[in-house]
Structures
1.
Amino acid sequence: MTAPHGTPAAGTARRSVSAPRAPRTVAGTLRAYLALTKPRIIELLLITTIPTMFLAAGGFPHPLLILDTMVGGYLAAGGANTLNMYFDRDIDAKMKRTRNRPIVTGEVSPRAAVVFGVALSIASALWLGLLVNWASAVLAIAAILLYVVFYTLFLKRRTSQNIVWGGVAGCMPVLIGWSAVTGTVSWTAFLLFLVIFFWTPPHYWPLAEKFTKDYETAGVPMLPVVSSRENVAHQMIGHTVAMIASSLAIIPLGHTGWVYGVAAVASGAWFLFLVIRYALRTHRGMTGKALGPMVVFHGSITYLTLLFVALAIDPFVRF
């Protein structure tokens, strides 16, 4: 398998990746393969899946169904993340934030990473199909293809809107969680999909702002690299407003109660405040820590966690 797009930068990837290190302990090897799956990102994905299952079930789904869905979801996300690291190994070697990833350091060879990523992807489809349902399996495969092909190979190096449309893959866990319980998807699941879709840009662009030099060096046209801070901030506000609207649109469908409603309004207002404050700071010409991009980044994670925790609690607190 060749490096993505056949670009000169991709062609130098093999020279950028370190030679394999000396044999390591079994524990060290396992840690390297675990790192390929990007477990911290997967934690965020799983946070959205379980509450969605609670909402779809109107209470506790069967514990074994939750476990099977979580394992299948982890395998799918891990496979996609591993293949993403394989195709991005050239730019990962150029970026301070990613240059210690296992393929770049030589802890895992590119060929081994491909085998591992494909194996995890196939295992996820079979696991979900045989132990959950085939609707969830199809959605998981769609998520893998969206992330690896649509985002990593097609969008990431070509457009500043890469994370907007590439973020569709990160929205799939809510559909998988809903279909795991019901065997299908609904308008409620679709609105949860939209919440995460609109959440992704104001979540990721502040991180890209902090690591602008990394992306410039790697030649990745993230929006903060190719556009003004003011434009980025204005787009973040638009996405945040759409995110809040999507979260509130779930309430009239009747699946949620006051716990979710209060959390959606309060956490949405708080996060919108963070984004507007960020926009005002860009207008004043602030940069670096004074601008505070990581405050918005961490705030976005807090927002999503609060919203989905409320979603999980809501079915059990009804009057």
Note: Confidence is low (pLDDT under 50) at residues 1-16.
2.
Amino acid sequence: MSNKTHLVDEITGHRRMRRNRKADWTRRLTQENRVTVDDLIWPIFIMPGTNIVDPIKAMPGVNRMSVDKAVEALREAAELGIPAVAPFPDIEMEKRDPTGSQILERDNLINQFTRAVKQAVPNIGIITDVALDPFTSHGHDGILRDGVIVNDETVDQVSRAAVMQADAGADIIAPSEMMDGRIGAIRRALDAAGHQDVGIMSYATKFSSGFYGPYREAINTGGLLKGDKNSYYINPANGTEAMLDAALDVEEGADMLMVKPGLAYLDICWRMKEAFGLPTYAYQVSGEYTQIKAAAMNGWIDGERIMMETLLCFKRAGCDGILTYFATEVARKLARS
């Protein structure tokens, strides 16, 4: 019998990596990470009124919806198996003020939405934010006094807002305003109000990023913003600082951690999951979504393929799930598979 050993066998020590890639069935059998519908959190935009579906120009395929239309959309999302929704409000300009006081109205848009969803679609989770930017006249996430975003007063306000959102039925509070001490303060406020079962998903590492632009159009804060958010968001250059921020949130009682934005910060996703072991999520933000959509609309990329590839990258980086505007599109694709 002739020896059919090849030079390649000697070079590789008879270990050929392509053996496991040779057929569809071997590739499926050896795949390390998968995207499932259980990985998806759907961020949506809500607005006042009824029977409104308002397309967002900067985010093709994404709409602002009145509460009634949002409830209809969430019925479909729940049927597709999407576990949770994260609502963001575009409230009337006349209700915005320097302190974002509308967030403390028990019947504000977010709380109306939460109560309506809990009544109509009780099997979908609701993850609400308490940042003030949708409610302020200056577009900042906190209270602005004499040109400074004041930390402690903002923490007091978002803690009160968190309790009101929990009263309305929110399952998880996800504070994104990046004030020091907010996680511990919100945890204490929730517990004091009897909301021990309401979780906290910390925006543990929210970077001062250029990827947020389309979102600001969606909630109409882009033209309002005075200055920048560099005094409270994290410098994109600073990984160690981001990890310290996350560690403080863990100490203060966060149940889950989030990295925002997503794709440009996969290293942070991995480091956070490895360091803390808590459920870890990435927010595939508006700029990430729009880049893919715009390139696909111009025929420059295969949009569906890139959509799935980016989500798979988050899973490979250790994420337990992803907040993505692609959620319903992905869920429909998975349902067809």
Note: The two ends are 46 Å apart (CA to CA).
3.
Amino acid sequence: MSSQDIPEENLPAEQGHAHGAVDVADEQNPFADPGLPPHEHRIQDIDERAAKRSERTVAFLFTLSMLATVGFIASYVTIPPDRSIFVFPIGHISALNFALGLTLGAALFCIGAGAVHWARTLMSDVEVADERHPIQASPEVRAKVFADFKEGATESALGRRKLIRNTMFGALALFPLSGVVLLRDLGPLPEDKMRHTAWSKGKLLVNMNTNQPLRASDVAVGSLTFVKPEGLEETDEEFQNEIAKAAVMIVRLQPDDIKDKQELEWSHDGIVAYSKICTHVGCPISLYEQQTHHVLCPCHQSTFDLSDGARVIFGPAGHALPQLRIGVNPEGYLEALGDFAEPVGPAFWERG
């Protein structure tokens, strides 16, 4: 069926020349405007059966997008992260990554393909030439814009073609769930893990260098030793996460040099244990001045006084180092009497 077979009243009106345009140039209008070429009507414009086929095609693509989004979520939940598959010609790849990429790509592609097919086959494709107008629109132009918008909404058939409208809304509403599911991959909820470390009552203090528990007699006055909790091994999967909170330095002072009452009570025979993690940005503290009992963070020179509750005496750190309460078990080994009384690390107090 062609446009010649359709009564004139059923065909869209042809657009003429823009205002002021002429077919032949003259002195007043030196540039001729030949106008727009004759409009070729699409089969969907003149055959409602073809329009229905296009409508079903668009709805099918939007439905595929919804199914792909559901597949994305199902793949994320059911496929183990360590499973691999062979895909020619790529080779062995992660089954989870392959499924997520395939379903997410399909969901996006079907939404785009459906929108493009809808625009090319069902929305109006008549070319319209309009006059340029000042930036500040006049009331007449504003009225025309609103009228054109209403006309465009009518021509899109969004209200009349409910199947397309409902499936499009379904695809667009369901697809963002993929992003919500991806947020779960940021890791488990922290809960109160930041407030606790691997230290607990009875955990022995193990020398980081020798991997052996320490006796009080092994710690000389003025020495600095780094220790870790008993049972925390470098081969453990969570070692780096745990040692980042549980790293401790011990120093032996003369009991008479300790100024802070709580520090003296939480020490053993002058041996004090403090977190090694600087309270500025979390750098490991490693420098010790024996004569002043000061420890220095090498990153930004925050300085703490270990003889006075590890308070900050210089630098950008905002808090004293948390102290670990220690004692000695019946075998003479140094042990923790609990966890830190406050969270370790930088600026945790302000964050909650």
Note: The CA atoms of residues 211 and 227 lie 9 Å apart.
4.
Amino acid sequence: MKEKLKAIIDEALKQMEASESLDKLNEIRVAYLGKKGELTNVLKSMKDVAPEDRPVVGQMVNEARTALEEKLDTIRTAFEKRLREEQIAKETIDVTLPAKKPMMGHRHPNTIALEEVERIFVGMGYEVVEGPEIEYDYYNFEALNIPANHPAKDEQDTFYITGNILLRTQTSPVQVREMEKGKLPIRMIAPGRVFRSDEVDATHSPSFHQIEGLVIDKNITFADLKGTLAEFAKQLFGEDTKVKFRPHHFPFTEPSAEVDVTCFKCGGKGCRFCKGSGWIEILGCGMVHPNVLRMSGIDPNEYSGFAFGVGLERIALLKYEIDDMRLLYENDTRFLKQF
């Protein structure tokens, strides 16, 4: 038995020394130390050994197992060290190479334009106020002098959730909510996303952004409105910018006007950008209608005010000379990085 064990150990050691991979080493371990290995078979044959010799043979098998396991561990450790050194050699990092520059976030053209508009009006003493995008029909239409079945509703065809809840078509409801609070005077702008049932094209989208302004105080006149918008245009488009008011109709203001500014591309001389007119339309405005004041709990005999509204995308398109509104929403970083 002793000679048999010695032969098993010698053969196992010989194969271990000749092995060239961890997989081969594992095969040797299974062949000699596994459940069906050579040493296990020796233990199974203990029944053929004389009872008085069994303790000695058992000790010899255990010693053989220990010797083989120690040798396996030694060779495995050497293999793993060599493989690790080879991997490190292959993955050597040249620390003198320039690092990869991480991509940084970039403000969207809409955000840049909005921050500039807010800066201008905050500098005039206005407050920035926000409101819900899901709005009641009352605040979106009725409180703005647009009763049920009014033709103006067709112009702002929108998305209804229920009979009296909808996605707002303008940020004017924010103004109504502020007027209802009764904290006068009011000087505010209300930027935010609005929704209308429009087809997507170069100048329209079912979801876009507006900035609406409101001033309510005693003795507010159309002259205050004109002076405010003239100053706004100069700060936004340049000191030489002039404004022109054209009569218009809005249900919630009276009198009402559309506002044009001199083309900042040609200075009012006429060019392709302004279609030869020298003027570019930017917003609508007017004096707050007395009915709107009354419905919000404000006495029109004591207070007056003006309101205006401009599309944020329109400002961005004009200011940065973008000819297609869809470019703002296609998330093409090649386009967005230009701003």
Note: The chain has a mean pLDDT of 85.
